[in-house]
Amino acid sequence: MSEPAIKSEAHRAGIRPEKDTFLAEENPFESMMERFDHAAKLLSLDPGLYKVLRNPEKQIIVSVPVLRDSGELDVYTGYRVLYNTSRGPAKGGIRFDLNVTLEEVKALAAWMTWKCAVVNIPFGGSKGGVVCDPSSMSMAELERVTRRYTSSIIETLGPDSDVPAPDVGPLFGPGGELAAVPGSGCGPTPPMVFGRRLRTWAMAPGRVSRGHGGFGVPCAPRWKVSLPSPWDMFRGTVS
User: Fold this and answer.
1) Which residues have a catalytic role annotated?
2) How far apart are CA 128 and CA 96, in angstroms?
3) Of the candidates 217, 225, 159, 215, which has an alpha carbon nearest to the alpha carbon of residue 186?
């Protein structure tokens, strides 16, 4: 392989990393911003819009006290970041993992913002997480963490503001607990959570929907599918 070809391959790897590699970097948010800066230069992005898109709209940090099955009380740290809602309500998963950090959550919320814009769906990007080890918890403990975390950020959640979903860690019990937090006043709002079980108003494809999309889009005839340009992600109205 020639030297220019090698450099080209390295450049592509640098701006489109595998997710695990990206999250393993020292500061995922700054790494994401390096890629954003590269795209902004290619687009000659308006300086004002550049400043807006470089900063998350809202960052929430909460304490999550949970009673363990042993009777011991543990306090975990939870995050929720709404990166940008110019195109519509934010959407994004919630991670239960020991390695969750605010910088990681900010980065993933930003990536979700770009992804929604690229495929031209009316959502912004968000992400959440709780610093805990779900593998060491019983289902009852996981349910308590989920309910306590959700009740702490409930004022942010809703079908017109921020729609959560499961990511890493089993967040749902038999009834889809994330959607119904006792005492929150929200009840089991049908459109409020992505990734619900069928009996809680979920769509049938559910867990395999990403696979369907990953197979269908490349296989569809180009002349029958109108796909937005990647650069359209920056052309929406920012309020």
Assistant:
1) 127
2) 9
3) 159
